[in-house]
Amino acid sequence: MPEIRTPATTIERLPLYYRCVQKLASKEVEVISSQELGEMIGIPSTQVRKDLSYYGEFGRRGVGYEVDNLVKNLERILGLNESWDLVLVGAGNLGQALVNYGGFKKLGLNINYALDIDENKIGNKLGNAEIHDIDELEELVTENNINIAVLAVPDEDAQQIADRLIEAGVKAIWNFVPVRLDVPDEIEVRNEDLSIGLISLTYYLSNQN
Ligand SMILES: NC(=O)c1ccc[n+]([C@@H]2O[C@H](COP(=O)([O-])OP(=O)(O)OC[C@H]3O[C@@H](n4cnc5c(N)ncnc54)[C@H](O)[C@@H]3O)[C@@H](O)[C@H]2O)c1
């Protein structure tokens, strides 16, 4: 598998390439050079060619990349040529905002299931998802073959929920809870923290002369 030797920084850039070429395709641009693609992302053309070369020969020397072809290949590489069912755990303020954002669905990422502990929420609809009792976690994950979970519960419950998700068969966790989850090596965890971005802004404003 070529991905094994692919640097993490390259993998992190793949969604950026994908977003760019998708935008170009929607404008009916047919061909893009590595120079132009690099400028859109803010990296040198040599890096673009190197990144994409890990996955095959997509470009033509002196011509560039066929946009439609690159869209298809990036979808395949990123696993976006299929749709994924996700389970949200914690249907609170953040969970609701995530479910109500339409952009994930366009990528084939469907938060079709939700779990919560609050009796006032259980049984309600959140987007397409019915909110189930957290006690149903194992059954829901197993029966629906869910591989990806979105974690948006209070800090103190995050690890035990993660353990249960993994035990039930979840392979990847999109973790919004500000705790480091202790998981087996084969489990992918992506930690998100919006406040880090915001605090970096206050840092720059506070350090201006
Ligand atoms: N990463 C970020 O940028 C970011 C931004 C906002 C919030 N957060 C984090 O996300 C989490 C949720 O924040 P929020 O503002 O949505 O809180 P919230 O209180 O509005 O929602 C939490 C939800 O989790 C449910 N819950 C509590 N214990 C549970 C359990 N054991 N099992 C299942 N559901 C349970 C609650 O009933 C509630 O619906 C917090 O950990 C918060 O720190 C992260």
UniProtKB/TrEMBL annotation:
Query: Localized where?
Result: Cytoplasm
Cross-referenced InterPro entries: CoA-bd, NAD(P)-bd_dom_sf, Rex_actinobacterial-type, Rex_DNA-bd_C_dom, Tscrpt_rep_Rex, WH-like_DNA-bd_sf, WH_DNA-bd_sf
**UniProt KW keywords:** Cytoplasm, DNA-binding, NAD, Repressor, Transcription, Transcription regulation
Q: GO annotations under biological process?
A: negative regulation of DNA-templated transcription; response to redox state
Q: Name one GO cellular component term.
A: cytoplasm
Superkingdom of this protein's organism? Bacteria
UniProt cross-references to Pfam families, sorted A to Z: CoA_binding (PF02629), Put_DNA-bind_N (PF06971)
Please list the residue ranges the record marks as binding DNA.
Answer: 16-55
Name the Gene Ontology molecular function terms of this record: DNA binding; DNA-binding transcription factor activity
Q: Does the keyword Glycosyltransferase apply?
A: no
Record-listed NAD(+) binding positions: G90, A91, G92, N93, L94, G95
Listed HAMAP family:
Rex
- Biological role stated in the UniProt entry: Modulates transcription in response to changes in cellular NADH/NAD(+) redox state.
Give the similarity note: Belongs to the transcriptional regulatory Rex family.
This protein is called Redox-sensing transcriptional repressor Rex
